[in-house]
Amino acid sequence: MKRILLSAFALSTVMTFAQQYGGMWIPTEVNEKEMKELGMKISAKDIFDPTKASIKDAVVQFDGGCTAEIISGKGLLLTNHHCGYDNIQSHSTVENDLLTNGFWAKDMNGELPNPGVTVDFITDIKEVTKDILAGTDNLSGADLSKKINDNIDAYKKAQKIESYQTISVRPMYYGNKYYAFVIETYKDIRLVGAPPSSIGKYGSDTDNWVWPRHTGDFSMFRIYADKNNKPAEYSKDNIPYTPKHFLPISIKDKKEDDFTFVFGFPGRTTEYLPAIAVEKIMLETDPAMIAVRDIALKTLDEKMRVDPATKIKYASKYARVANYWKKWIGEVEGLKKSNAVEKKKQYEQMLISKNPGIKTTIDQLTQKYNEQAPYNLHRAYYSEIVRNSDTFTLAGLFNNYIQSYEAGKMDAKNIDALKARLADIYKDYDAELDAKVTAKILALYANKTEAKFLPKDFDQLKNETRNLGMMDNVSKISMITGRTKDDNNVAKNMDKLFADQKTLVENLKKDPLIQMFGAFKTSYLETTDKQVTALQTDIDALQKKFMAQQMETDKDRKFFPDANSTLRVTYGKVRGSNPRDAVTYGYQTHLAGVMEKYIPGDYEFDLPKKLINLYNTKDYGIYKDKTGDVPVNFTATNHTTGGNSGSPALDANGNLIGLNFDRQWEGTMSDINYDPRLCRNIMVDTKYILFVIDKYADAKWLINEMKIVK
Ligand code: ARG
Ligand code: ASP
């Protein structure tokens, strides 16, 4: 009896230690009371205040995707290694591969510019629902969208902003509310430092999405500004940006249950879907996308294993494809294990019992989702086929090009953009290998897809062996794969061929690959795309209603809008987890654990000599914790998603304690069904970051810029 009471007590404290549903809060609407109850010592205004310096002034969206934060008075930026990856790669040469060797500027003059890379500050946030939904009461469908867009334009025009600012108006709660964000974009962003991949990507795909983790996933950049500290294009005369605020870095030991919050730009979540939608993701679309990538990855791996050149060429592509492949597998597993669909159904029954009107909405949603399901499944296959076949991606680009050219839309700027995109694909494209990938995924596609969705002769494509021969032959004679020797080879004669567009288009139209892809695409557009879109318009309207009904009915629940790449705050506690029966995860890993995983010469678990020496000599300086070892990664209950990579994890006083970069396997379904028992975000410990900068890289000049809290 005592035991039961005790565990019931333990359970209830578990339930109350953090907000029951996770949450990604709009920074102007955080639940200050709850944050303080959980241990926060600063106020909500310290986090976000449009009128004065606050933590928001140290947090930026990095190049439209990840998050980064300012950690010195000279605009020094910290983000993940995997967020800076492409830029680190772009400065690499065969003689000096910065991904392999790492890079550390000796001083500011040694920092490397990255044309095109931007960072965005959010300087103000306002709820503008009234303005945006004015006059929309009796509208629906296209009329409603038009009125909303007009209102957004009118709102933007009426605001007084500086020349370097823009306004973005975004829907929240499926269009029940609207928020305006004032954005300042800086454009001169230079690479300052990055550890070698053997630290920054340690564990690579094997450890990706997995805890316990041992990755030093960080890199550093610096924001440059004009002489008035305002945004400017790259110029050697620009000066390091002086921020309104930068994050002090704490190297205090962490304890389980310490309060923490994460401030950043989560990309996309769908927490408020009806059970039927979750069921379709779990049983249909996720498995379809996984199946295509299974085949693509396996085919690439066969060649990457035996050919070092292919290994290098495909490293980034492989990692990208594997990342979400692995995430979806974890997501499906997690949704099943956590009984997500059943729980959603029970939740819906609860809502209906309080508000019977909701039944109609759910029934209508169920009907629409069922109607959409076959089209959605086809869409999942189709888009994954195109995404995982460079050959089809190329054919698709040329297909669009032909249409744009014929519509008279190909001006010099568009041609340059297309050429750049093509060059980017050709750079890491192995046409022979890709023909193989394409042949195999086409066979899967033809076998899994209802005949009514496919062009007439597609039946033949069910045979993989036949496809392999066919694709290889076609790719050898196509002008767009780079395999022919003649002058019509676009990959090799790009400038020359684009100089005479009329002839180019005539020839492209005769290309067998472009014709094949064209048939494939036309059939997709006619049989599927239109239907998906039309049904989605209905679903969106119903989902908006369902969202409003959930909010009206479930008064005990604190609602937050799904992630949509806007700035958010999430909070929780430093914590390990108990993901399975008899399995307990600690919250912190250490350098000794990095060494435990070390496999000399392995592409995922090799380590630099110098790091091993530091470990052997225990040269840890001030970066060890009470165990005498250097802490490397830690987990907490912050509710994060893709886009939160690079986000600062802060302590009760607003000091930086970690750098967010991943989630743990058992909780990857958090985008659809956040479960506080299983979901953990994974961060690099600030002690490990500083240890690598100071002891491994000897970059003391960077440490000296920072404000370290001991
Ligand atoms: N899973 C993390 C995220 O979604 C990290 C990905 C980068 N690391 C990798 N091994 N691919 O972005
Ligand atoms: N790794 C992710 C990112 O790049 C973060 C996550 O999905 O947890 O944003």
From TrEMBL:
Pfam families: Peptidase_S46. Residues 1-18 form the signal peptide. It comes from Epilithonimonas pallida. Belongs to the peptidase S46 family. Keywords: Aminopeptidase, Hydrolase, Protease, Serine protease, Signal. Its EC number is 3.4.14.-. Gene3D superfamilies: Trypsin-like serine proteases. Transmembrane segments: none annotated. InterPro entries: Pep_S46, Peptidase_S1_PA, Peptidase_S1_PA_chymotrypsin. Catalyzes the removal of dipeptides from the N-terminus of oligopeptides. This is Dipeptidyl-peptidase. PANTHER family: PERIPLASMIC PEPTIDASE SUBFAMILY S1B.
